[in-house]
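Q&A log
Question type: sequence-to-structure
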Amino acid sequence: MREHLDVPTAMLFNNGTIALLVALKLFDLPEGSEVITTPLTFAATAHAISWNGLKPVFADVLPHSLTLDPESVEKAITPKTSAILGVHVYGTVCELGALQDIANQHGLKLIYDAAHAFGTRVNGRSIASYGDASVFSFHATKLFNTLEGGLIASPRPEDQEAIYFLRNFGIKNEEEVISIGINGKLNELQSAIGILNMQGISSEMQSRSVLRQQYREMLGDLEGVELQPQQAGVTSSEQYFPVVIDPVKYGRTRDQIYDELKNLGILARKYFHPICTDFVPYRDCPIHSVRPVPYVSKVKSQVLCLPFHSGVDSQDLIDIEAVFKRGIN
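Response status: OK
Response body:
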């Protein structure tokens, strides 16, 4: 993993949520301090903050990229803020430079939830080398998986020992426990699956790259259907293919398309809907935004992730295209 991600520290975990918990614990953030993150993410991102005795604070996302909006992050900062937790959502890379500038200016830690961005490079540089740490998920739904698993990557070699103790009960040797830790180790069976799956990454990514281009050709000219942006200098993780469906411009809603596909046995996903601030634990949390109404409040009902894997065949594509273009001249 160190070689594949081109970082000096890459520590494996039994799942991505435990890795995220440990990544936050690694920096010994003040108890009760605030960590700014996005509401457009899986619940585990916010839960990891809360389980560490920290307070999740939600900031709006950018139109088009749907990643954390730096200006909204600035607006959310208070004297209690200790860190920013960005998410490379759908594999779209965060505003790396802007978020790092904000972190530097305010003395904040910058951590990335990179569950969707395994293997991504930015102008040749590994996504795992940005910020203070990046956390990956190797859940069974991911392109590279160990059935269940995760990883913390860090650009600092000295973090390896600290992460090791946090991951393994704080055990130094047979007779010494020198710190408080949990059981976050990846087991041998998961490791074996990972070794096998590493052999198929290139071919699966190639298949998905072809599928991505097919989707773009099918849907690119539909008014009101916005495709995932192609970021200059960024190699795609080929993890997801999201579209944003504007019901006014397009004439139908995201949910209508979802239901029509489901009726054909084609399972798209409403990632991420509901968003974190719709869930009971975070329902009273505001979304800080530079807009009168947070953009995420609208886009959460418009995003649909289409089936994106090598098992999508030509008939599936015909059916998907027919659904999207039904009734359109």
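Response note: The radius of gyration is 20 Å.
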